[in-house]
Structure formats: C-alpha cells, structure tokens
Design goal:
Layout (H helix, E strand, L loop, with lengths): L2 H11 L13 H10 L1 H22 L8 H8 L8 H14 L2 H7 L6 H19 L8 H19 L6 H31 L7 H27 L10
Helix pairs in contact: 1-2, 2-7, 3-6, 3-7, 4-8, 5-7, 7-10, 8-9, 9-10
Length: 239
Amino acid sequence: METADVLKAIEKNSAYITAYDFEVYDVAWAVDQMKAYKNFMYLSIGIYLFLVYFGQKWMENRPAFVLTSTIFLECRTPHNYATSFWGFLFILSKLVEFGDTAFIVLRKQKLITLHWFHHITTLFMCWLGFVGYDALGRLFVMNTFVHSLMYSYYALKALRVKIPRRFAKSLTTIQITQMFLATYVNFASVYFMVKGHPCKRDVTTVYLSGVIIPTFAYLFIKFFRETYTRRVPKIIKSE
C-alpha cells in the first residue's frame, strides 16, 4: 500500500476515534521511515539471533547473573494504546523487548523456541503491517494488554512476590486465544479477497500471517501442555 493510501485509510478511520493533540503527528513520515529502514529491522533480527546463540555459548562456563533489580526496571517499560501514533511506538517497543532475552541468557535459564521466535516474527510482522496499514494490526491492542500483564508478572516474580500459578496459566490461555482470533481474521481476509470484497490487507502479509500465526498457536499450546498439564511423577519413598 502506498503512503497516500495509508493516509486516506487513517482519515477514514478517524471518524470513530478522536485523537488528542499530541497524537496528531506526521504519519507519512513514519511510514516512509519504516520503508527506508526496513533493512534496519532485518539487521536487528540478525543481531538478536547472533547474540542469543553466542550469548548462551559465552555463558556456558560462567556463573549465572542474578539481575533481580535490573529485571524489575526493564519490565516496567510502558506499552501504549491507540491506532497509528501508538502503533508506531508499539513497533519500536518490539525492539526494546529484545532486551528481555538478555536476562534469560545471563541468568542461564532455559531459552525456549517460543521466546525468540515470538520476538523476531512479531517485529517482522508489525513492521510490514505498519507500512501497509494492515487491518490485522488493530489486534496490537490485545497484544499490548497481554504484554502489560506479562511484564508486570515478570517484574513481580523478579522481586520474589508470590503469584498464584493460575495467573501465569491465564496469561498463556489469553495468548492462545489471541492466536486463534488472529487466525480467524486471517481466514476472513482470504475469504473477502477471493470473493472480491474490499479488504485493506496486503496479500504478502496475509500469506505470511497464515504461516506465522498458526506456528505461534502450536508453540503456545505446546508450552501450555508442557508447563501446566504434564504430570510430575510421584516419588515413592522406601521405608
């Protein structure tokens, strides 16, 4: 979608959302920056994966860091709500969220596939979606809500606050629900496109979402089963 088309879409959508003065900004500039610095996004993902792999190698024979207070500060990074203005900041926050992997690596905790895959693909999809003002991007509100709860949870855990296990279980359930909702929207998009109905989505983004989102769903369900439903074998004490 061209920048001019994006601006038209925003003007149309503003009919049901009243923007505050500070939210009115140069959208064309933001879209053009995302287009111009797309390679920066790819480079960021590459550096992230490089540091994840070699960071774990570097920590193999070193003691784990504690980083309790540092984690709390990082977890308080704000996540924001709205459409274009906050959506732009939302994408930038995905770069900041790369930092939470450092705590896992430095503390020598298990780094699961879901974690790093979620980080790189979310940045990738959000970046492309913003450039094309993809309609699926409206789900970022739900994603922001979940992440606000999730990072608050991590912050409290870092401060050694006891939190009921069912809270973490609920967070994962919401994540899975989000994936199914996004999958439904994606199928609906394909249906509208096939039928020739207006659909403000880029075909490439739809296809990519069709692969990435079900993968998310699978990984989240796998994590849920392994973490919350797998029974721990009882140890029978010998008399």
